[in-house]
């Protein structure tokens, strides 16, 4: 196996050369479980940890290694253990707002070519949630493909209706329907994977991501759990993020189901996901139009005339305002963190000054 077989190309080679650390080796992070890592080179996979300097000097958790990252490592004990010194810049990324009240990013995975956004054809199907996933994926410069699982639980007419709902929401990405139970549609999914390309799966718990991964791997590599009958929701079987290699050499990252899909500063993702609204916004009378009450707002007129679905318009406003709010909150938090860092630096400097010389 060569590094190019697991996604290394000229772009990453250039970034690697810029570090000017020829004594370190290159490897790719294939698994993250809290503060433990698994890295792979052209020969094998090895347990790894990050240096204390990398841990304590990073300004945000999003700068720490995640699955899919290329890292510079130093091997020990006959290459059975590695220390991660640096993380190479990311060509693409998948991140969300950290769960809870903390205003920060949570990095999910990186250097992904295609994201499979999966919803099932039961209670889980939700166009508004799909829009959120698309915003998150496009913000990270990843190409989305939509998978509709459990197609055996719906009639051909109902499935056609779901395709129609996505089309009305101007969701024009490739859409593939399949069933893990009957295996209908699985060949088309398998055929979409390319050698050395990196893919990931996104979706709520219980939609069948892990079962599909087992189908693609050709073995029961990962544990699955049934969904609750009363509401169709699943348990979070996947608790870690891991990169697996398929038989044809494609690379696939499985991710835990997400309880919360928050966004921070995703202007690009919103613009790409709501391109038809952006085209209307360019026709507004005022450049600073908020698209909520102004006379001469092309977006409001399109809603009134029935040219723009009211639910999609409200989803656009909600995501835009959420992004703006967390962008301001994140910027304020980063400013306070820097002020605190400077205060600690000054205090430590003063302490060193007052220390009696030996």
Concise account of the structure shown:
The chain is α/β, with parallel strands linked by helices and 358 residues long. It has helices at residues 10-18, 52-57, 127-139, 156-168, 186-191, 209-217, 267-273, 275-281, 298-304, 310-354; strands spanning 25-33, 36-40, 45-50, 70-76, 81-87, 93-97, 105-110, 114-120, 143-149, 175-177, 198-202, 241-245, 251-254. The chain is globular, with a radius of gyration of 23 Å.
Describe the model.
With 358 residues, this protein is an alpha/beta fold. Helix content is 34%, strand content 21%. The chain is built from 10 helices and 13 strands. The strands form 2 sheets. The protein has a 5-stranded mixed beta barrel with strand order 1-2-3-5-4. A two-stranded antiparallel sheet has the order 6-7. Strand 9, helix 4 (156-168) and strand 10 form a beta-alpha-beta unit. The longest helix is centred in the C-terminal third of the chain and has 45 residues, at 310-354. It is globular, with a radius of gyration of 23 Å. The chain starts with 9 loop residues before the first helix and ends with a helix. The model is unreliable at 228-232 and 234-239 (pLDDT under 50).
